[in-house]
Amino acid sequence: MASSIPYTPRTRPSSRKAQVTLSAKQYTKISHTIEAVRRKRGPVNGAIDEDGEGCLNSGLYLKKPFLDNAPEQSFIDERSFVRAPLNSRLGLGPTIAPKAKSRRKTKDNLSECSLELQEAIILEDLLSVLMGIEGTHITFHEGYAPEDADEESLLAGPQFVVDPKLNPSLRDLVERTLPLATHYSSIKAFIELRSSLEFGLVNHALCAALRDMVKEYQVLLAQLESAFYHSPDFTLQKLWFYVHPTLHTLTLLQKLVVALCPVTPPSEESADEESSDDETPGGVLRRDLGLSMPKDLTDSSKPRNSQYNESPIIGGEVLTVISAMMQLHVGDPDAQKVFSSLWKSASVPYARMLRDWMTRGVWRDRWDEGCIREAQWGVSDGIVRGDEEWDKRYTLRDGTSVSSSQDDRISRKQPEEPTRLPGGACIPPEIEPLKHKILLAGKYLNVIRACGGQIKSDFETYTSEDIDLGSDRWIKQVDEAYTYANITLLSLLVGDKSLTTANTLVSRLDSLRHFFFLSQGSFLLHFLDLTVSEMRRSTKSVSQARLQPLMDLALAAEGAPYREDVKVVISTNGALYEWLLKIVSVQGAGPNEVGDEEQREDAKKSKEKEKSSLMTIDALSLDYNVPFPLSLVISRSTLLRYQIIFRFLLHLRHVERSLSSMWIDQKGSVWRQPLHSTTDLGKWRGRVLLLRTRMNVFIQQILAFAAFDILEPSWRAFHERLKTVTTVDDLIRDHVDFLDTCLKGCMLTHAGLLKYYSKAVMTCATFTTYSSSFSKEAGADDTTEAAMEKRWSFLNKFQTNFEHWLKSFADRVQLVASSENVALLPLVTRINQIRPVIPEEPA
């Protein structure tokens, strides 16, 4: 407490008289001091007045002349003093108000002074100017007033004018030193202007680092001022010697300030002003750094609460500029040291945001500085609770998606000049390769929190080295956080008992295999029996509300798990094979891509006509509701693959069922009428039965190949990988690879195979639709030559088409199996079994 009591000087005793004269020792000491100064500096205009009091006009050593000649507005010019939090409480009283006294009253006498005295006078002025304070003989450029200067002028720094009466050699040294004052004033203005709240934490950290560097410069000036007042040997040349290394550092800092200044919006009325803005020093430097502003950006990439043209440089954009400066001065060790120090200090708040996101799943970014954008949602607790939230709640500000596919990326028109995104959308190059890992790590932790899981992270204590962006230690921490989030979420998905999950992923995958791969297809046969009449109608005349109860009834009879999540849907993509051919052959240009308006209308009409003529069985499909977070693995894109395989198997089952029904009809009395095998009608009947049998064998072989040679082995391999998978990303990748393998094995991704296969299958399907016609002709009594020729002609159309497409399909399968896909080799053997040579019909 004693230290807090202010010091109060003790009152001198009244009995003690004040000494008004000097002792002999004191007088001798002062006399020797004055004589030494005279010998060193020389006399000034007589140097001694009538009263015998020494008074140097330079005002260096005697107190009163120095105060009279000093600018009273020094602290007003020093904005950092006036704007300081505590000094702002001091009122601007008459003690610091500017007086109407001329600063330049001694300028006329400068030419009359000796060289040594000019050096002493200009040294005093230069020390003030180096602190950003206008001197007597070194003044601001005409038209510049720090009190009325705008932001751009303050950030550019003042220009100084030296008294032309100064000795040329001294003026040359002074002009070499003056850029220090300009750079210092520019840096100080940047620190003051960018320390406001709206400029974000990264700018605040950068200003703090700049303030530390400026403090070293101020300490240097204090040492030089002390040497000026106490060392008789201090000269202007020595001043230049001491400040010369600092000039390079302040020049680098001033370049950074120019690069971080916002771009002045060009005038819309004049294109010449736009071109002139690009030629300013700041514009040239930004163009050299590759940091020109893009002209076309989405609103999501703009900083919040500001227009893009007027928005300041904040967040990741600041770090990108510093990184670009490091690359620009890659051959300068001093520049690398300076910018590396600034980068490390400025990236601390940015790294803390990313660290909290990766280790706790919490994103706090008030000023939109980070690379992740949080969309406004109904629940504001920051936890993801659904598929839509997973996709849209947290995204990257630069517009890129997590998927590595080029189709999932937002297309941007590449400008001629290199550009960067504004604010947080500009991701520093040091973390560009890690941005997807950082995003997914936090999103995974969000999922764990939403499902009631506990996040037990090992990242509790951090040092300054741990939050150095771009360092090996930081990259290691990102990988560790990403791996931890992956493993924890994986244990949640596979059904860890310590976590609360409605069901496990493995059981859901088993149900998908049951419903979409028809591993036990009794429910499908039951459903087709219940909907025989509905399947033959067009898609426009069938309602899903009528089909869903029938599907529920078929599933209830089987007792399959998760049957309440299965829904019947009518696909809007048209026939399966035509749709797949458009996809794999990249010929499915939509109507919007057709140039002519009439062609677009024709394409639209043909599509509507195709939908109206499409039967329900050809567009029938299943949908499956997957609860969150299992939908992260069983996403809509993977469900689409399941639906394609289901429609492929359903169509084969339907054709096989139709051929079996045709076989039952041909066991009737009409086909059993006694006829001699040598008659034409008997031969015709045998040819129909043989063609139907060969078609049925063909369909059964395709089904057997898909089920036993492709789907079942692929499922078993995928099920084994589920036991050894370690991360969610590996699980998702294995799941997609499994489905892609199934699609490729079922010949649904090869245009050549799909074309010949679809023609052969559609020939079989069309053949079954004429079952009643064949039965009618088989029981007809007309056996004339004309009637038999008509029968043979009709049958030969089916036989010729089937033989042609079957042979073409078999040849293409054999070619692909030997060169591209060895998984098709079993199919080659199966098809060769149904290619016997059939004798031609009698003439």
Automatic annotation (TrEMBL):
Q: Does the keyword Cytoplasm apply?
A: yes
Asked if the record carries the keyword Chaperone, the reply is no
The record's subcellular locations are: Cytoplasm, Cytoskeleton, Microtubule organizing center
Region: Disordered; residue ranges are 1-21, 265-311, 397-425, 591-610
Q: Where is the Gamma tubulin complex component C-terminal domain?
A: 505-832
Q: Which InterPro entries match?
A: GCP (IPR007259), GCP_C (IPR040457), GCP_C_sf (IPR042241), GCP_N (IPR041470)
Keywords in alphabetical order? Cytoplasm, Cytoskeleton, Microtubule
The name on file for this protein is Spindle pole body component
